[in-house]
Amino acid sequence: xxxxxxxxxxxxxxxxxxxxxxxxxxxxxxxxxxxxxxxxxxxxxxxxxxxxxxxxxxxxxxxxxxxxxxxxxxxxxxx
Length: 79
Hints:
Number of helices: 0
Structural class: mainly beta
Number of strands: 6
Distance between the termini: 14 Å
Strand content: 35-45%
Largest sheet: 6 strands, antiparallel, barrel
């Protein structure tokens, strides 16, 4: 959206669970209920894509309506 600043954070983990929980390497300023795109994640490939964020903490958030597909092997970006 016009005037909105895009935030990008490195991902350190994506849980193999239903709902996937993403852990970022630094504090994130993401907002619950907004769409986020995960890309470049390996191992847990189903974490890649666009999702609604929920249950945000300073270092984690859930991907609404997501299910993990395997053990995470690190990496990826949350945009």
